[in-house]
Design brief:
Order of helices and strands of chain A: HHEHEHEHEHEEHEHEHHHHEHHEEHH
Family (chain A): Belongs to the amidase family. GatA subfamily.
CATH topology of one domain in chain A: Amidase signature (AS) enzymes
Protein name (chain A): Glutamyl-tRNA(Gln) amidotransferase subunit A
Helix content of chain B: 40-55%
Oligomer: heterodimer
Strand order of the largest sheet of chain A: 1-3-2-4-6-5-10-11-9-7-8
Distance between the termini of chain A: 12 Å
Number of strands of chain A: 11
Strand content of chain A: 5-15%
Largest sheet of chain A: 11 strands, mixed
EC number (chain A): 6.3.5.7
Number of helices of chain A: 16
Helix content of chain A: 25-40%
Shape of chain B: elongated
Number of helices of chain B: 16
InterPro entries (chain A): Amidase (IPR000120), Amidase_CS (IPR020556), Amidase_dom (IPR023631), AS_sf (IPR036928), GatA (IPR004412)
Radius of gyration of chain A: 21 Å
Distance between the termini of chain B: 72 Å
Strand content of chain B: 15-25%
CATH architecture of one domain in chain A: Alpha-Beta Complex
CATH class of one domain in chain A: Alpha Beta
Structural class of chain A: alpha/beta
Largest interface: A-B, 43 and 28 residues
Shape of chain A: globular
Radius of gyration of chain B: 30 Å
Subunit structure (chain A): Heterotrimer of A, B and C subunits.
């Protein structure tokens, strides 16, 4: 059962090949068997999962099943879930149980999906390797010596290892696309405002966006249709109709204009990654697309701008973790300042503290104009780069990451870690959608092809990714652990 | 040396929305601690603010009332600092692009003259919770019911020159917001609080002196007292060769003094930046025009109309338009009795006296405007005389009788204008007062005018106050003079 995609499972459930309870129990057993080693889950919720599966089976028996009814998935531990711990990968929230569901969770529940648990992640979504989790690092299912990427590393690893057919992630600077690339799965970051942020623990509010991670673009299309749409509880969600994302999947690519940003094929790009991406582009040419080089001239400012804006917002968003109302509180505080200092010193990990300090500094009197304001100006230029490029071409293509998954512990220096996000980070600054699809290997480790479109072009991206997956079988390759049985 | 006082006020007005500025929780005052704080007010992880449109409308109405510029776009910023009653670790406010631009407020001084005070801007923000330092044995309790209550902060230019002007300005703001119905203006419950910036400078000097900011003063009286103390402190300091330092001070009403809270060096760096969870507020012209059309008549316009159309004195017009409740009561009385001057006299005289004695606001008057109007109408149509009218008023105040007519009938206070009846009473009084009649007769003619008062009093007494006093006077004079 675990070798099937979400879409195949939907068909099997509908055909009565097995029940949602059988499927759920099977995947829970796999998690039980493999995840001690993989560490992709922070919390597993077998009982609520089986109950939800039973409800789904009952709904199907009553003829009330929808397209996602009874399908199991996992949620990054950044989505608030009523009654189930939501830690954001932090000691600070190790005991936090929200009294509400995130809008994404609410919509997935309403669609009849079955959540098996909450997946591991870099603390407060700050990281590119999942090594910043209070709950320990996650292993890459393709190679236990490699990281799964981050920050949605647990979600990517769980899907790749066949523990769940799909999982929800969030992407602030590449946190869906890069782990999807590292783990050989498909991951979509929607347009900013397409999916409600309500109930998602905030890292950088103007950049955060939730999206699906699964084996195929078709699976992502099904899930996006369920979670996208306006939400009155999130003022930044956009009041715009949600198309049928599966409807356009088969559209032919004849005449598709692909742009290859010159800046995405420069220094620091691993030759094997480059070869895989160029090979993928050839596949598109064979499908009737035309290819040209384009320029995104402000690309090299994206990382500095991001590391001003994101930490600035984070420093403010994380102020609520003060030990007063919820979350970690130090023992025997002597006074208010002691309570703040020790609760936060003990509750936050090193990378989170680093970003809080950076953000606090860049917003300080005397530095605001030089950093924050300037970064916002750069952000507008970066956005304009993309808008200009989309005047010429329909989609942009390039690598999701300059290298395949690196070894655990390989990037000790924070700046070298930040540079991992060179191809993904500008996309968040511009607010446009992007998808990463499996496109080959560099040694044993997967390579991701990133496809970018203009604002609200998700249907087009999914179509372009889907046609590639019909022409190739990279997305069908499974790591050994996914072939193993319990 | 002669010193001039320079004052600027930051007035925080709690807006009378039913729910909070960024959440659906109730804003009602006085609930059990932390029962009116939802996930958004508690700053729980992942929740997001949604702007309450009613708060925007109220802010714009205020802006229109002070003839302020209403910018098309305003932006919410985060003001970052740590405090236990500030759940998110930041207050959502408006630093760079406030909802209301520059405007002006007219104040009326004791001598009846008016002065225009410029308002720099007014912005929307959320209130914090309350820290409760008592009853927790060395610990502090936090009540977040107030967290997220919408505030309009109205920032004046330093145009005020005395404690009296500052109090008059505060009263003018109070009057505008209560007229608009955008705040209950209840200072005791904290619906209006202000921070006072005070400095002094030698008369004639143009540059401002160094200012001190007095935080959280919450009554008209305290504003005057805090400023009076602070001015004296600064003048003394300067005259002794010292310097005023820029600092934040607290007013202690028990001791009637201000005390240093923190100096500029200790001030927080609030790290303002635009709140990424809220979109800029864009007001289209049609929306603002619609709000303008629905504005009620404001105190300054009302005062002008009372003076111009109703012919009241400037003083009366000022008093009667000072609050919406007072003005509405007066206007109703005037409608019912048909005479503005009589209505003004009664509202400011008998009614205000009674209200003051019992410490009641006019909206809780036991005598409604309709009842008072009917009573005055009976004086105007000569059904009762002024003396009886006071008795009727007292009876209505005490709840004896449902209307003036009922009290008049029950107490037999209808004025006696039948000259036969009055003459009979006069004859009886003269017959019963031979000594006084003899005195009257023996007095010089020009002294007699004063002596007649005794006889008037007796006749009025005999009529239990119902005889028409003018008739009594005239007839008495006739009859007594006939005896001389």
């Amino acid at each position: 059962m675990h070798d099937k995609t979400l879409s195949e499972l939907a068909a099997a459930l509908e055909a009565g090949e097995f029940s949602s309870r059988e499927l759920t129990a099977h995947l829970l057993a796999r998690i039980e068997r493999f995840d001690d080693d993989l560490n992709s889950f922070i919390t597993i919720t077998p009982e609520p999962a089986l109950e939800a599966a039973d409800r789904a089976d009952a709904a199907r028996a009553a003829g009330k099943a929808g397209p996602l009814t009874g399908l199991p998935l996992a949620l990054k531990d950044i989505f608030c879930t009523t009654g189930v711990k939501t830690s954001a990968g932090s000691r600070m929230l190790d005991t936090f149980v929200a009294p509400y569901d995130a809008t994404v969770v609410e919509r997935l529940k309403a669609a009849g999906t079955v959540s098996l648990g909450k997946t591991n992640m870099d603390e407060f979504a700050m990281g590119s390797s999942n090594e910043n989790s209070y709950y320990g690092p996650v292993k890459n299912p393709w190679d236990p010596a490699a990281v799964p990427g981050g920050s949605s590393g647990g979600s990517a690893a769980a899907v790749a290892a066949g523990l769940v057919p799909a999982a929800m992630g969030t992407d602030t600077g590449g946190s869906i696309r890069q782990p999807a690339a590292f783990c050989g799965i498909t991951g979509l970051k929607p347009t900013y405002g397409r999916v409600s942020r309500y109930g998602i623990i905030a890292y950088a509010s103007s950049l955060d966006q939730a999206g699906p991670m699964a084996r195929t673009a078709e699976d992502c299309a099904r899930l996006l249709g369920a979670i996208a749409g306006h939400d009155l509880r999130d003022s930044t969600s956009v009041a715009r109709g949600v198309p049928d994302y599966t409807g356009e999947l088969e559209a032919p690519l004849t005449g598709l204009k692909i742009g290859l940003p010159r800046e995405y094929f420069g220094d620091g790009l691993d030759p094997e990654v480059e070869a895989a991406v160029r090979e993928a582009v050839k596949v598109y040419e064979s499908l009737g697309a035309s290819v040209r080089e384009v320029s995104l001239p402000h690309t090299h400012y994206a990382i500095p701008a991001y590391y001003v804006i994101a930490p600035a917002e984070a420093s403010s968003n994380l102020s609520r973790y003060d030990g007063v109302r919820f979350g970690h509180r130090c023992d025997n505080p002597q006074d208010l300042i002691d309570l703040y200092k020790r609760s936060r010193a003990e509750g936050f990990g090193e990378e989170v503290k680093r970003r809080i300090l950076i953000g606090t500094h860049t917003l300080s009197e005397g530095f605001f104009d030089a950093y924050y304001k300037k970064a916002q100006q750069v952000r507008r230029l970066i956005r304009q780069d993309f808008l200009d490029a989309f005047e010429e071409v329909d989609v942009l293509m390039g690598p999701a990451s300059p290298t395949p998954a690196f070894d655990l512990g390989a990037n000790k220096d924070p700046v070298s870690m930040y540079l991992q996000d060179i191809y993904t980070i500008a996309v968040n600054l511009a607010g446009i959608p992007g998808i990463s699809v499996p496109a080959g290997f560099a040694g044993r480790r997967p390579v991701g092809l990133q496809i970018l479109g203009t604002h609200f072009a998700e249907a087009r991206l999914l179509n372009v990714a889907h046609r590639f997956q019909q022409a190739t079988d990279w997305h069908c390759r499974r790591p050994a652990i996914a072939e193993e049985t319990v | 040396m002669q010193w001039e006082t320079v004052i600027g006020l930051e007035v925080h007005v709690q807006l009378a929305t039913r729910s909070k500025i960024f959440s659906g929780a109730s804003t009602a005052f006085g609930a059990e601690p932390n029962t009116q704080a939802c996930a958004v007010d508690l700053g729980l992880p992942g929740v997001l603010p949604v702007l309450n449109e009613a708060a925007v409308a109220m802010a714009v109405q205020f802006g229109l009332a002070i003839h302020a510029e209403i910018p098309e776009v305003s932006v919410f910023d985060r003001k970052n600092y740590f405090y236990p009653d500030l759940p998110k670790g930041y207050q959502t406010s408006q630093m760079y692009h406030p909802i209301v631009g520059a405007g002006e407020v007219e104040i009326t001084l004791d001598d009846g003259s008016t002065k225009r005070i410029r308002v720099h801007h007014a912005h929307l923000e959320e209130d914090a919770g309350k820290s409760l330092h008592e009853d927790f044995h060395g610990m502090t309790g936090v009540d977040l019911n107030r967290a997220g209550t919408p505030l309009l902060e109205i920032v004046s230019e330093p145009d005020l020159r005395s404690a009296k002007e500052a109090a008059a300005y505060l009263k003018a703001i109070h009057s505008i917001v209560t007229y608009l119905g955008i705040s209950d203006g209840n200072m005791a419950e904290g619906s209006m609080r202000c921070d006072v910036n005070v400095s002094v400078r030698p008369v004639g000097q143009e540059a401002f002196g160094t200012r001190a900011e007095i935080k959280n003063v919450n009554s008209f009286r305290f504003v005057e007292r805090a400023i009076a103390f602070e001015v004296e402190r600064q003048v003394e300091l300067l005259e002794d060769g010292g310097q005023v330092i820029q600092e934040t001070r607290l007013f202690d009403p028990e001791r009637d003094e201000t005390r240093s809270m923190r100096t500029k060096e200790e001030a927080n760096d609030y790290r303002y930046f635009p709140c990424p969870d809220l979109l800029p507020v864009v007001l289209d012209r049609a929306y603002v025009d619609h709000l303008r059309e629905t504005l009620p008549e404001l105190p300054a316009d009302k005062r002008a109309r009372f003076e111009g159309e109703l012919g009241l004195s400037a003083y009366d017009a000022g008093v009667l338009s000072a609050s919406r409740e007072m003005a509405e009561y007066f206007e109703r009385v005037r409608e019912v009795c048909g005479d503005a001057k009589q209505a003004a006299n009664w509202v400011q005289g008998e009614l205000s006296g009674a209200l003051n004695r019992e410490g009641l606001p006019i909206q809780h008057s036991p005598v409604s405007a309709d009842r008072l109007g009917e009573l005055i109408a009976r004086v105007i149509d000569d059904t009762i005389n002024g003396k009886a009218a006071k008795q009727v008023f007292q009876a209505l105040w005490n709840g004896e009788g449902a209307s003036a007519d009922e009290v008049i009938a029950a107490k037999g206070l209808k004025q006696v204008t039948d000259s036969g009846a009055i003459e009979a009473m006069i004859d009886r009084v003269i017959a019963e007062s031979p000594a006084q009649v003899a005195q009257y007769r023996d007095a010089e003619p020009d002294k007699r005018g004063k002596m007649i008062g005794y006889f008037v009093g007796q006749v009025m007494k005999a009529s239990r106050g119902t005889a028409n006093p003018q008739q009594v006077n005239a007839l008495l004079k006739e009859k007594l003079d006939a005896l001389c």
